[in-house]
C-alpha cells in the first residue's frame, strides 16, 4: 500500500513569516506611537502636519541613526528587521491605497456640477504634465518628478504612496540603469517633504489671497480644494474662510482623489510598455529566440489600483454603514503611517540633503502651476 504525501514546505518558506515578524512589529509599534503623537498635535491645534510625513521623518531619523552606528547590536537589529520592514513598505502600503477608496463617493463628487469638475480636471491634468516637463528641464530624476507631479496634482502623501507602488513594480531608470531601492526611498522622502512644505505655505497664503481677489465662498472653496495638496491642509485653509467654503473645498478635494486611479493606472501602463520594449530590445541585441526563455506576464494595471476602484464603487453604492466607514478611515491612516515609517527607514538623509536643491525648485514651480491653473479655471468656469 502506497501513501501519497503532500510536499513539505521548504525551510525558507517555513522561516519566512518568522523572519518578517520583527520588522512588522517594529513598524506597527512605531505607527501606534506616531498616531498617538499626531492625535496630540491635533488636540494642540496643529492640523497642517500629515501623520504620513511625520512617519517618514521618524523612519528616516531612526534609519539614519541605525545605519551610521558602528555597534554590532545596531547592525544585527537592522538585519533582523529588514525582511519585515520591506514587507510592510510594499504590501501594507498597497492595502492602504485600496482602503482609501472607501472614503470616496461618486455622488458627492458629482454634486460639484460640471463647472466644478471641470476645474478639477483641468488643474490635475495641467499640473501633472507641467511638473513632469519642468522636471526634465531642471534635470530632476524621473522618479522624483513623477512622485512630485502626482503629489501636487492629486492628493499629497496618499498620491505619492500610490505612485510609489507603481515604481516598485516597474521602476524608471535614472542614468540608463535600474535605480536602487534606496534611491526610490529618497525620491519618496523628497516628494513628501515638498508636499508638506508648499502645502503648509498654501494654508496661510491662499485664504488671504482669496479675500484680496474678492472670491465668494464657493469660488474660494473650489480654488482651495483644487490646489492645496493634503486633505488636512485643505480643511485648515478652507476652515479659515467659512463653513460654506470648507464644504465646497472638501468635495473638490475628493474629486481630485477620485482621479488618482486613472492617473496611476495610466502611468503604470506607460511604464510597463516602456519596460517591455526595453526588454525586447535587450533580447534582440543578445540574439535571443522566441520561446527561449520565460516571460513573466503582468497586468497593465496594478492590482491594488483595481482594488481602489472596487472600494470606490462599494462606497458609492451606499451599502457600507457609517460606523464601518469610520473604522476603515482609521485603519487606512494606520496602514499608511506604518508603510511610511518602513519606507523612511531606508532613506539616506545625507544624500537627500545633498541633492535637494533641484527638487526644491521643482516643488516651487509645481506649487505655482497648481495654484495659478486652478485660480484661472475657477475664474473662467465659475464667473
TrEMBL record:
Topology in the lipid bilayer is annotated as: Multi-pass membrane protein
Q: Where is the signal peptide?
A: none
**Membrane-spanning regions, if any?**
20-42, 48-66, 87-106, 112-134, 146-168, 188-209, 299-321, 327-347, 359-381
> Where, per UniProt, does this protein localize?
Cell membrane
Q: Which UniProt keywords apply?
A: Cell membrane, Membrane, Transmembrane, Transmembrane helix
Checking InterPro entries in the record gives: UPF0324_pro (IPR018383)
Q: Would I find Lipid metabolism among this entry's keywords?
A: no
Q: What is its main location?
A: membrane
Source domain of life: Bacteria
Protein family per UniProt = Belongs to the UPF0324 family.
Any idea what this protein is called? Sulfate exporter family transporter
Amino acid at each position: 500500500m502506497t501513501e501519497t504525501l503532500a510536499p513539505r514546505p521548504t525551510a525558507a518558506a517555513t522561516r519566512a513569516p518568522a523572519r518578517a515578524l520583527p520588522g512588522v512589529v517594529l513598524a506597527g509599534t512605531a505607527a501606534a506611537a506616531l498616531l498617538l503623537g499626531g492625535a496630540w498635535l491635533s488636540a494642540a491645534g496643529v492640523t497642517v502636519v500629515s501623520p504620513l510625513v511625520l512617519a517618514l521623518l521618524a523612519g528616516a531619523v531612526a534609519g539614519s541613526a541605525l545605519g551610521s552606528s558602528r555597534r554590532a547590536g545596531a547592525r544585527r537589529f537592522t538585519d533582523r528587521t529588514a525582511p519585515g520592514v520591506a514587507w510592510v513598505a510594499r504590501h501594507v502600503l498597497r492595502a492602504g491605497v485600496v482602503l482609501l477608496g472607501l472614503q470616496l463617493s461618486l455622488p458627492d463628487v458629482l454634486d460639484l456640477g460640471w463647472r466644478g469638475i471641470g476645474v478639477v480636471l483641468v488643474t490635475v491634468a495641467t499640473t501633472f504634465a507641467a511638473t513632469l516637463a519642468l522636471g526634465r528641464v531642471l534635470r530632476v530624476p524621473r522618479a522624483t518628478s513623477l512622485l512630485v507631479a502626482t503629489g501636487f496634482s492629486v492628493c499629497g502623501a496618499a498620491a505619492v504612496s500610490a505612485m510609489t507602488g507603481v515604481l516598485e513594480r516597474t521602476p524608471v531608470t535614472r542614468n540608463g540603469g535600474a535605480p536602487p531601492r534606496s534611491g526610490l526611498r529618497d525620491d519618496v522622502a523628497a516628494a513628501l517633504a515638498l508636499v508638506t512644505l508648499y502645502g503648509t505655505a498654501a494654508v496661510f497664503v491662499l485664504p488671504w489671497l482669496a479675500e484680496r481677489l474678492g472670491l465668494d465662498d464657493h469660488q474660494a472653496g473650489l480654488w482651495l480644494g483644487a490646489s492645496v495638496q493634503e486633505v488636512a491642509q485643505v480643511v485648515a485653509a478652507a476652515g479659515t474662510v467659512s463653513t460654506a467654503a470648507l464644504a465646497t473645498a472638501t468635495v473638490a478635494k475628493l474629486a481630485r482623489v477620485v482621479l488618482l486611479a486613472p492617473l496611476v493606472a495610466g502611468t503604470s501602463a506607460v511604464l510597463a510598455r516602456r519596460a517591455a520594449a526595453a526588454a525586447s530590445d535587450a533580447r534582440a541585441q543578445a540574439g535571443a529566440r522566441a520561446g527561449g526563455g520565460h516571460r513573466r506576464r503582468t497586468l497593465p494595471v496594478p492590482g491594488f489600483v483595481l482594488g481602489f476602484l472596487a472600494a470606490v464603487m462599494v462606497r458609492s453604492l451606499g451599502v457600507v454603514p457609517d460606523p464601518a466607514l469610520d473604522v476603515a478611515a482609521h485603519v487606512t491612516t494606520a496602514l499608511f503611517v506604518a508603510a511610511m515609517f518602513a519606507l523612511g527607514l531606508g532613506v539616506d538623509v545625507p544624500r537627500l540633503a545633498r541633492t535637494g536643491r533641484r527638487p526644491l525648485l521643482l516643488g516651487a514651480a509645481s506649487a505655482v502651476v497648481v495654484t495659478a491653473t486652478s485660480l484661472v479655471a475657477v475664474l473662467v468656469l465659475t464667473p
